[in-house]
Amino acid sequence: MRYRDLTGKELIDAYKGERLGVLGNTDLDINPQTGRINSIVIQDFSMLGLKKGDTNARINWKDIEVIGEDMIIVKPDHT
């Protein structure tokens, strides 16, 4: 799967049932040795697209449960 196939999909937390963001408005943490994605970093943006602050959320790639046609369902490890 290519990044462009993932862009625009909504990230949904399966435990809380809430929208985390849209892939494409995020950053990817990539392992430079393997080229694999370690995690998705979600920045905290306002409605106008301006960055609110230095806060962000990180979703580990291993926590992705399903990649669907319109959304990505994640089950973050809360332990």
UniProtKB/TrEMBL annotation:
Every copy of the PRC-barrel domain together lies at 1-77
Q: Which residues form the signal peptide?
A: none
Name of one Pfam family that matches: PRC
Name listed for the protein in its UniProt record: Sporulation protein, YlmC/YmxH family
The organism is: Piscibacillus halophilus
